């Protein structure tokens, strides 16, 4: 069931972005990991819209999310105009797999390659890693249009000043002052800088990418060209990657019935050949969590403990996740008999 939050305060971060401090109403307080997000449920013009926004605060602090205006984005426009202090909003429990666990015994390079509001899931991770993994080197490559458009610029500058293991590299396509050169982060510059800044064994390096689709595609292709292992590249998406270079593969599925465990209840769920597990659950009024419905955000992730599920799109689960049986119900289809899926292992 959705949770309820009350807006305690609102801070204008830039002309296009605000940070909302929230308090939970009623139920036990939620917990989260740095890098996770809340999925807000909006009612706009009689329709339900779900959008995910990163939590920018650390566990133990007041829960905060930052929303930046998205061009032609109905949800962000609605939130920035209509959400007010004291108002209550509905959201799903914190979710997301764009989370980097601190290591105590290894020295490594951690590269955050970020553009625009992609900084929102990164800021709390930076703050945790700087304390919990001080032996490693953290590199933030941060692209924006100008200084005025840049989220958390003062906070990041202060973090860099107080933590020498953090280096921030600013990229502005149209800087407002002469303090910063005009430059864009492209594949050539990215490759050169990664090689130059690497301090420890390249095989230990981790790359966390968040930003617009074309930016993340550029960064990922560059890293793969540099022979970085796929499992060392993590990406965060909130919206389906609608820009694809070629038509998707045609899939043909059959009707199956799956066993679904959710909130302590077991369901026998018929899934037609032309619908995903999530869509079948929604048709039977089982309120599974979801957001993007495009295989990119992991809000709908569950574990398949028996049988086989095939996903038409997976932009978030790693090879390790797949080996552990994790699936995305929003793009998942049962392809064998006796499929068992559980949400009761978070």
From TrEMBL:
Listed CDD domains: fer2 (cd00207)
Pfam families in the record: FAD_binding_6, Fer2, NAD_binding_1
Signal peptide: none
Cofactor(s), names only, from the UniProt record: FAD
Residue ranges of every copy of the 2Fe-2S ferredoxin-type domain listed in the record: 256-346
GO molecular function: 2 iron, 2 sulfur cluster binding; flavin adenine dinucleotide binding; metal ion binding; oxidoreductase activity
Domain FAD-binding FR-type, residue spans: 1-101
PROSITE patterns with a match to the protein in the record: 2FE2S_FER_1, 2FE2S_FER_2, FAD_FR
Organism superkingdom: Bacteria
Alphabetically ordered keywords of this record: 2Fe-2S, FAD, Flavoprotein, Iron, Iron-sulfur, Metal-binding, Oxidoreductase
Protein name from the UniProt record: 2Fe-2S iron-sulfur cluster binding domain-containing protein
Species this protein is from: Hufsiella ginkgonis
């Amino acid at each position: 069931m959705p949770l309820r939050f009350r807006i305690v305060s609102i801070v204008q971060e830039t002309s296009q972005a605000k940070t909302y401090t929230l308090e939970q109403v009623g139920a036990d307080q939620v917990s989260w990991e740095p890098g996770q997000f809340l999925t807000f449920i909006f009612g706009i013009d009689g329709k339900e819209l779900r959008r995910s926004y990163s939590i920018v605060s650390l566990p133990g602090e007041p829960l905060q999310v930052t929303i930046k205006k998205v061009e032609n984005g109905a949800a962000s426009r609605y939130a920035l105009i209509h959400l007010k202090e004291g108002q209550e909003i509905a959201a799903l429990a914190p979710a997301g797999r764009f989370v980097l666990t601190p290591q105590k015994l290894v020295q490594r390079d951690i590269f955050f390659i970020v553009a625009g509001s992609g900084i929102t899931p990164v800021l709390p991770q930076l703050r945790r890693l700087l304390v919990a993994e001080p032996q490693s080197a953290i590199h933030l490559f941060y692209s924006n249009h100008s200084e005025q458009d840049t989220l958390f610029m003062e906070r990041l500058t202060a973090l860099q000043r107080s933590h020498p293991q953090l280096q921030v590299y600013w990229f502005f396509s149209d800087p407002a002052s002469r303090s910063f050169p005009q430059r864009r982060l492209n594949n050539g510059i990215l490759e050169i800088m990664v090689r130059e800044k690497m301090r420890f064994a390249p095989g230990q390096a981790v790359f966390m990418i968040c930003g617009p689709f074309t930016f993340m595609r550029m960064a990922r292709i560059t890293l793969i060209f540099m022979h970085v292992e796929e499992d060392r590249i993590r990406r965060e998406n909130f919206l389906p990657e609608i820009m694809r270079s070629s038509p998707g593969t045609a899939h043909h599925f059959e009707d199956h019935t799956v066993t679904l465990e959710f909130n302590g209840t077991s369901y026998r769920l018929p899934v037609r050949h032309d619908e995903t597990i999530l869509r079948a659950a929604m048709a039977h009024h089982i309120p599974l969590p979801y957001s993007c419905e495009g295989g990119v955000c992991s809000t709908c992730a569950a574990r398949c403990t028996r049988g086989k599920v095939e996903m038409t799109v997976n932009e978030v689960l790693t090879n390790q996740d797949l080996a552990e049986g994790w699936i995305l119900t929003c793009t998942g289809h049962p392809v064998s008999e006796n499929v068992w899926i559980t949400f009761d292992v978070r």
